[in-house]
Amino acid sequence: MTAVPPARISHPETGEVADPRVEALVNEVIGRVADKWTMLILEVLAEHGETRFTRVGELVGGISQKMLTQTLRQMERDGLVVRTVHPVIPPKVEYRLTDLGFTLAEAFCGVWTWAETNIDRIEAARAAFDGRKR
Amino acid sequence: MTAVPPARISHPETGEVADPRVEALVNEVIGRVADKWTMLILEVLAEHGETRFTRVGELVGGISQKMLTQTLRQMERDGLVVRTVHPVIPPKVEYRLTDLGFTLAEAFCGVWTWAETNIDRIEAARAAFDGRKR
DNA sequence: GTGCCTACTTTCCAATGGAGAGTGACCGTC
DNA sequence: GACGGTCACTCTCCATTGGAAAGTAGGCAC
């Protein structure tokens, strides 16, 4: 988190950044992590702290139970969340971000604020595009 | 890009951030933009500047033509890229980021460096998880 | 007993994504 | 003048993914 490597953008024609092995791995990680539900869950866990299964689903909104379980499991496997099972009846399972998860949430924070500040521009662009083409 | 709103994370129990209408719109935008191919294309266009159709495909790697056209069209509609058709034979179409696209690329830059710096931690977490469960 | 609670799991079906072939428009070669 | 090549798609077929809804487990209240 300290010692951020030099920017990876804004230098066209300057050659690749690193060896292709790392490149491929990074792409694989991006593929896993840059998914709608992962981002949304990351956000609610960052905002609400330790949260129960169904509550996460409510806060995310519009997610099916299948995808909720699946995404949470994936995130647990990648070390982004910790799953705590309280052996009570009825069952109680809580999820919270690990340090790693938190750093990722911070990284995504920029995208979030970008989305907030640029919604109008996107909608304008869409309207212009749709108006032009049809 | 100026006047970044206060951080949206790290304050559990502090109540929601804004009105739910904006919340929903932001989620919709995130859903569109936080997609594997969009991120990857954004990255190559940020790094390589104006680029031709097939070249983008090569640089992204592993993307089908269908998804390439589809994602580029979507990005064009959202005002992230500009599509320039040179009326020559054989056809030549170039794509480049708009200012808006560039700001998004910058926002994603944090995720990129996060992925680079944390690959080892993710792999370790996965190994631990898989070892525990099987 | 019958329900109810929660966190899943399973089943079924519709939508998405990938592989690969086809298309159009023209040019250069034979 | 038929033939192949180039490039940016577009179309078709099929496997995988994702959503909706029902089922499961296991004990507790009635």
What are the defining features of this structure?
62% helix; mainly alpha; 5 helices; 10% strand; homodimer; disordered N terminus; DNA-binding; Arc Repressor Mutant, subunit A; 134 residues; three-stranded antiparallel β-sheet
How would you describe this structure to a colleague?
The structure is a homodimer of 134-residue chains. Chain A is mainly α and 134 residues long. Chain A has a single domain, classed as Orthogonal Bundle (Arc Repressor Mutant, subunit A), CATH 1.10.10.10. Chain A is 62% helix and 10% strand. Chain A contains five helices and three strands. Chain A has helices spanning 20-33, 36-48, 53-60, 65-77, 99-133; strands at 51-52, 81-86, 92-97. Chain A has a three-stranded antiparallel beta sheet. In chain A, a hairpin with a 5-residue loop joins strand 2 and strand 3. In chain A, helix 2 packs across helix 3 (53-60) and helix 2 crosses helix 5. The longest helix of chain A has 35 residues, at 99-133. The first copy, chain A, is globular and about 60 Å long. Chains A and B meet through helix 1, helix 2 and helix 5 of A and helix 1, helix 2 and helix 5 of B. Chain B binds a DNA duplex (30 and 30 nucleotides) through helix 4. Chains A, B: Pfam families: HxlR (PF01638). Chains A, B: InterPro entries: HTH_HxlR (IPR002577), WH-like_DNA-bd_sf (IPR036388), WH_DNA-bd_sf (IPR036390).
